[in-house]
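Entry for the shared binder. Reason: the reviewer on the internal report wants the predicted structure included alongside the sequence.
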Amino acid sequence: MGKPRRSPSGEQRKRDPERTRERILDAAFIEFSEHGFAGARTGAIAARAGVNQQLISYYFDGKDGLYRALQRTWETTNGAARPDLPLAEIVSGFLAPGDPQRSWARLLAWEGLTRAESDADPVTDDYFAAMVDDMRRRQQAGELADDLDPAYVQVLLFAATLAPTVLPQVARRMTGLAADSPEFLHAYAEQLRRVIARLAEPV
């Protein structure tokens, strides 16, 4: 006879729900980025995660709660304010090649096209407000000219980082390079660094 199976320790039992939540979030990330909020199905998310669909309601209170949890994961992964880094380095960091960055960009694009402003999450609003506050701090430190509005500059830079994913066909037609190629991303990041350097120069 084999050895009797041991019951999981308290620590293991604690980790199992955490792992389940992570699997659900990972699956939701893929599903929402591919189909948007309206097109995503909790059944498909559960199947991707290999869990019972009822666990989505249990852990996240349904599809809407799961989406908000995913938003907060993005905020944690992509910190709003990094005063220790130059602005150019932060912006170019959002252009890192790889599926996760492209998936986050697609997720934001879907949200802009299909989610009403009334669905906005106050926590997410605070996240973006913190980005603008960081830009104001940088303006006071001399990284941004006094005649530029920090909020509008932040919108411009945010859109610039989404462009390779949201408008890949435009990028290819204008530069001759595939928008997800290392060559394009390297050249694009370098040009953005030069543009950002100009932002400190007053007109």
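Summary line for the report: The radius of gyration is 21 Å.
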